[in-house]
């Protein structure tokens, strides 16, 4: 993680759109209710999920490559820690990402370092709801 906690508020205020990698169709999962919360606080939220769904009325893309480049600047990831190297490789291949946010319980130091070395701001093991409530 290369972003200090003290910069979270400014960072969040700098982006109007958050793309959620792995936005679930199950309303009881954090990968669904966290995006709902963030959308209710004013951000535009898009999602990726391999199966089509319209739960929560989000715009869902089958993969990150289908998300318009201008909407891939801030990516909030809900994938297991062992999948993060694949996610980082995909992000780096596509380009355009400025912030990689790994939700609470998710981290992969080597993959995070790779993203950081590519100039991406990386936050790991943090929940957007908790950080929103702490900073706003």
From TrEMBL:
Domain CoA-binding: residue ranges:
11-106
Report the Pfam families cross-referenced here.
CoA_binding_2 (PF13380)
- Give the species this sequence originates from: Leptospira bouyouniensis
Q: Which Gene3D superfamilies match?
A: NAD(P)-binding Rossmann-like Domain
InterPro entries assigned: CoA-bd (IPR003781), NAD(P)-bd_dom_sf (IPR036291)
Its recorded name reads CoA-binding protein
Record's signal peptide? none
